[in-house]
Design goal:
mainly alpha; Glycerol uptake facilitator protein; 11 helices; 0% strand; Aquaporin_transptr; MIP; membrane; repeat
């Protein structure tokens, strides 16, 4: 049971709800009649991707995810192939190469998520799809169609890069820097959790800056690649790891960490997100999506409330 709201908090949330009653038809707030009191169901329900389950929409989602995942990994693999040509025999980290690879993945994800978000949600990753199912953002039926599509797109992108660019394919994931299998597993887990939680908070959880979500997602992925590339190759995505492994017919005995690690990270991020939703995190730091005028009114009333309720000094 949550703690009771103070009068100023109730006024603030009521004011925001009344401003949202003029939202576009079909939005969650558009269904609230003007003057009606807001409810918990209206203000705090989980925003979802509004995915329809019709056959045509499922086909559109599958085609969109295949093309989007292919383009994301195609340009990421192309940048990685360029960075690793010619192949280096040094065991020391080449920071220029690592930054170039991280930028290739981060910028490619940013661009393609921005393009495909309106079509499929721009997931491009089976563990991101898993997180959306867990958090109520995607029907299971569509997820079961999309996940194999993402794996197939990863295989296709790796195959095209292998055939298109000269030299052996140099984009496979492998442990480096003396990292053990256990270390690689948990590196993949924590880096994936960072990426998935960013996606849940910036893209799934609707707010005033949702349209800029691809920038935050790309920055998060760039950071994860920058940290993990030297130690594990920075997969964070079973489709990214499996595609090059198939193209090169190279499966190290620890390949399973590139599946289990990201799945564990997705479960960790999803669990934390659902915990925050259950704790009604919006009330911890209210007004983050309000306009400047709304926030000023709330702060003024909050200050007046504390002034009037302060006990007189004896």
């Amino acid at each position: 049971m949550s703690a009771p709201e103070s009068p100023d908090q109730r006024h603030f949330f009521s004011h925001l709800s009344s401003r949202q009653t003029s939202a576009a038809p079909g939005s969650p707030t558009a269904a609230v009649p003007a003057g009606a009191a807001p409810t918990r169901t209206t203000t705090n329900r989980l925003p979802i991707l509004k995915a329809q389950s019709g056959a045509r929409n499922n086909v559109t989602a599958v085609v969109g995810e295949f093309v989007g995942t292919f383009l994301f990994l195609f340009f990421s693999f192309a940048g990685t192939q360029l960075a690793n040509t010619p192949a280096s025999t040094s065991t020391e980290p080449n920071h220029t190469v690592l930054i170039f690879i991280a930028l290739s993945f981060g910028v490619s994800l940013t661009a393609n998520v921005w393009v495909f978000y309106r079509i499929t949600g721009g997931m491009f990753n089976p563990v991101v799809t898993l997180a959306l199912v867990i958090c109520g953002g995607l029907p299971i039926t569509r997820a079961l169609l999309i996940m194999p599509t993402q794996i197939l797109a990863g295989m296709s992108a790796a195959g095209v890069i292998s055939a298109l660019l000269p030299g052996p394919l140099a984009v496979t994931n492998s442990l480096g820097g003396g990292a053990s299998t256990a270390q690689g597993l948990f590196i993949e887990m924590f880096l994936t959790a960072q990426l998935v939680f960013t996606i849940l908070m910036l893209a799934v959880e609707k707010h005033r800056s949702t349209f800029l979500a691809p920038v935050g997602i790309g920055a998060s992925f760039f950071l994860a690649e920058l940290v993990g590339c030297y130690w594990t190759g920075g997969a964070l995505n079973p489709a990214r790891a499996f595609g090059p492994a198939v193209a090169t017919r190279t499966f190290p005995n620890y390949h399973w960490i590139y599946w289990l690690g990201p799945v564990m990270g997705s479960l960790l991020a999803s669990g934390f997100y659902l915990l925050l939703k259950a704790m009604q995190y919006q009330e911890c730091n209210p007004g983050q999506d309000a306009s400047g005028a709304d926030l000023e009114r709330y702060e003024d009333r909050h200050a007046q409330h504390h002034t009037t309720t302060e006990e007189p000094k004896v």
